[in-house]
Structure formats: C-alpha cells, structure tokens
C-alpha cells in the first residue's frame, strides 16, 4: 500500500494573525459550539491552521474509507464470536446484553455508522493510525465548522470534502420515517457533551427533523422507543447516541438499557459497535478470518500488556480509554502514574493493551513544535472532513487544541508563501 | 457577531486576562432579550471583600442569581466578575438556571457603567446549588447538575504569577468539588480565607485534602468520566417509579 508521506512537505501549520485571534476564538465559541474553550491554563482553540496538500487529503480520506470497510467486517465477524468478547475487555453486563440481543443485532443496514480514525504524522515520514473511535466519536462541530471560520486566514487553502455534520443529518434523515423526533442521547450534565448534541440538533433541524436532547434513561422501549423527558415527550424515530456504550450498564435496570443493543430503532451508532471500540481489537482479529490490509499497515504493533515491555518503546492504553486518557507516554505521565498503570495491567490484563510507540513528528511553529492528530470521520463508509488537534506533548488529550484543517486549493502548487 | 457573543463579551472582555475562564454555556441560551434595569436594592453590600489592589482573587459560591448580583456588587469594588456557570438549561431541569441567565442579561448595564480596568482581579462566580437543588428529582427530569473541576479555574501557579497571594471564598461553606481546587491552591502557597454571609469579615479557611487528592487514580477516574452517575449527572439517581414505588406496594 502506498502510504501518504508526512516528511514535511505535505502538512504545515499556518499562523492566525495575533490581532485576529481573540475574535476568532469568540467566533469559535458561539458559531462552532465550542463551549469548553479553556482547560486550566490552556486555551483549547489553536492559533494556527493546518494546511494539507490535496494529494495527502485525498489519500487520508481513501485510507479512512478502507479502514471503515474493514472495521465493519470485523464487527460482523465479532458478533458471531461471543467467545471473544471477554478478550476485548468488555464489562460482563455488556457481554450478556450482546448475547441477549442476538448475533444479528446491529447488523442491519438501516443503522447509521459513524467512526473516526486518528492519523498522526511520524518522524519516519509516514502517517500512522493510533486508534478508531468507533462508538461515540467527538469533534463533529469542530470538523464541520472550524475550517469555514478559519478559511479567511489562509486564502490559498479551503475546507475539504463533505462536512460530517451535514452527512450525518442526511443519512439519519434518509433512514427514518414518520414524524417522531431524533433522540440525541447524551450525559446531560456535561456542557462538553451538550455542545455536540446542540450542533447535531441544528443540523437535523436544517434537514427538517425534530429532535429531543435527552439522557439515556429518558427512553422507554414499549412499542418502539418513546421519550419521557419533560417537554419532549413522544415517539422517537431514531437515536443518535453520544453516551458511551460501556457506561450503559450503569443505568437503572428498570430503564431496560439492554434495549440499546437490540434492533428496535434506527441507531447511530448501534451499541454493538462497542465491539470495535475496544483497543484490544487487534489482539483478536487474527481469529476472525477477515482479510485485512489497511489496519495492519497503519496501526502500530499491538500486544497483550506485559511488564517487560512497558519501558521498552511500548506504551499502555486502557482498553476502553478515550481522549488520550491513561496512555502511558513518558512525557505526559509521572513515573508513579506509569507504575500504577503497569500494576493495573498486571492485575487486570484485559483492561489494557500494549502498543509499540511511534515517533510523532512535531510541526514547527514559533516557540517550538506541535504534535498533530487528524481525525477522519466516515459516515456509512464515506469519508467526511478532518478533525484536527494539536498538542505540545505527543499525547493528544483533553488539553489538546482544536485546529482547523484546510486543504490547499487545486491551483496551488506549493504550501509556501501563504498570507 | 451575534447578540449572544456581544453579551458574552460584556462579561468576558478581550482585554481582561481572566476572561478566558468565563463559561459560555448559559450565554448560548440567551435569545436577544434586552436587559432590564436592576432594582436599586438588587446588589448586596460587599464589605467583606478586601480592596481590589490587595492581590486577592475571589470565588463567589452563592445560590443562583445571588452569585451574579454579588459579582456585580464586587465590580463596584474593582473586581472583574467571571461567570463560571457550567450547567445546561432545558425544560424540566433539576437546577433552575433561568434566574442566572436573566441576571447575567440584566447585569450588563451595571458592568458597562463600571469601566473596569484590564488589571481588575477576578471574582469567579459559581452557583452553590449546582449539585443539590432544593427540588426533588423526578423521572423525566433533565439532570443538569454539574460540579467544578480544577481545570475550570486558573492554576495556583498562574494566580501567583499574576500577583494573587490570597483567595477568598464567599459562601456558607466549602463544597466538596471546590475543596479539590482550593487544596491545590493552598499546597502551592496561596492563602485561603472564607467570608460567610451574615457574618462580619473573613476568617482563615482550612481546606482538608479530599480523599484521593494527588492520587493518580483519582485523575484517571475524572478523565475517564467514572465520576458521572448512571444517567450522566453528578448527584443522586433520579428515582424511577418502577423500582421505587410511591404507593408502597
């Protein structure tokens, strides 16, 4: 496979003029649903724009579509292999819910499937994929709206491809009938989750659908799905979930959370996709009989956690981790944290996975380097937009900055000399 | 820019170094309603506050709109009120945020009249009812309870570098989520005081380190979202009639 080159010519950072940054940040907050623009002393809105070569952008989209196709096939195979679900590190109640729902649940084409693949440029000159956010990927608003807001700062570049918000809304609309609302299920106490749902509510309203912004226990399942949230009561036509599947089993049993694993309603994503959310997925894919090309080539070597490997060019990742949490990159964690993670991995092997560390290539800006992660969404197999994040350290976590990703215009031959 | 962002800018002006911590969530609920003049007695006396030139930052943790009014009164004393309200609004919400939204809207007239300098020290505003509303939760309610995390405020290092040596909490007591913040401040050498309503003056605040403080697993738990309760809120579970029968059957 011909991997895109990341040796320096295919991606660069372009500064937002300092005199415009404060206003840009304000626009990002209110026009792009960025309600968490500050984490501690860190501004999470980048003062740069990422500019990709068009060829690289096309290649990243192509790779993401290939990865999505392989991931869907892995999911299908895993549904038929409940004996492997424990190896993935899934909680027991989820394993039982998957078994109860049956091997075909989640397989239906009427569900909408969205994923995000995280690409990183490396010192070796190639791009690697650190993981797929298969269950509830974030960054819809940032990927959809930031490029448009920042385009004026880089006139030789432009937003690229369909935006994920529009594509999601169109796909959900195309798969639902009737007048029922689209239930936007999320953790209602969290502004950073709410902002995601508020954005999707706007996109769905634009395509003519009614929405209900609700918690997971606001759904009742008798005769289809019904919303009981005050002021939003009524039938649901579909559920768009931004509440991680592995948290569902903490819900009261009386709300029948296991029904999220059934095929009773059009879902995005269906809860059974938690099978490929586990970072331990590579440990079982050889047992599934699914031919893979892109995954083995793009993902760093992955292994069972082993104490011998922790300080030897390997790192530990929580099996169900999100937003970079718990990843034992030395520059981002204390020795004590790494030892605790190692101890936990020793005691609870299935909660962790070991992955060979790759050398992220920092992009040079005034004052130092920045590590880049570009998330590429796919919606029902089609790539959509880019979600850029920048970090001072190689781990992209909650303190990373959201950065717009633009692609050089077709008539541009060089990335140099941008205004 | 929209009216919403203009209103936000009144509370979080670009020239204030503390404005970046202001939370935009409640401002997103505003709908172009013009501000109304505040009653003459709306703003309380704030004799408890030290002079704004004394290297002091304030954290006002009072119920609902009272926190906003206290912040506006502190603006008279030269403090920059910084709203940190981070709860969402919706029909059936457990925590009523609308009085806060109205106070933020109406308060801009007061703020404009103050002409606060860019150097004004911060008075961070919180709703003390964020985790325990007086109202009993029912099924179908919108659980918008929220809590404060250390990353919602400046670090102790940042405060010290800005010349802030003392933090005064204006509240009946220090809530558990704030203890995590203030314990870090104290450990870094920031002096802590509390000014309790209906009592004169300020007293030293002794914040005990909460269980799990400085423990790596606590950090992992917070980042992992494991602190959330089963329905995505922070407080107690919302009762469900099918498991908690009100008829006692």
Please provide a written account of the structure.
The complex is a heterodimer of chains A (419) and B (249). Chain A has 419 residues and is an alpha+beta fold. Chain A folds into two domains: 11-280 and 360-408, no CATH class; 301-356, no CATH class. Chain A contains nine helices and 21 strands. In chain A, a hairpin with a 5-residue loop joins strand 5 and strand 6. The model of chain A is unreliable at 413-419 (pLDDT under 50). Chain B has 249 residues and is of the alpha/beta class. Helices cover 26% and strands 12% of the residues of chain B. Chain B has helices at residues 3-11, 65-76, 98-114, 156-161, 176-187, 216-224, and strands at residues 56-62, 80-83, 122-127, 166-170, 191-195, 203-204. Chain B is globular, with a radius of gyration of 19 Å. In chain B, 43% of the residues are buried. At the A-B interface, helix 1, strand 2, helix 6 and helix 9 of A face helix 1 and helix 6 of B.
Features:
heterodimer, A: 419 residues, alpha+beta, 6-stranded antiparallel sheet, B: 249 residues, 6-stranded mixed sheet, 6 helices, 26% helix, globular, disordered C terminus
- Which strand-content bin applies to the residues of chain B? 5-15%
Q: Percentage of helical residues of chain A?
A: 25-40%
**SSE arrangement of chain B, N to C:** HEHEHEHEHEEH
Mean pLDDT of chain B: 84
Q: Number of DSSP helices of chain B?
A: 6
Continuous helix count of chain A: 9
As residue ranges, the low-confidence spans of chain B are 213-249
* Helix/strand class of chain B: alpha/beta
Strand content of chain A: 15-25%
Largest interchain contact: A-B, 55 and 54 residues
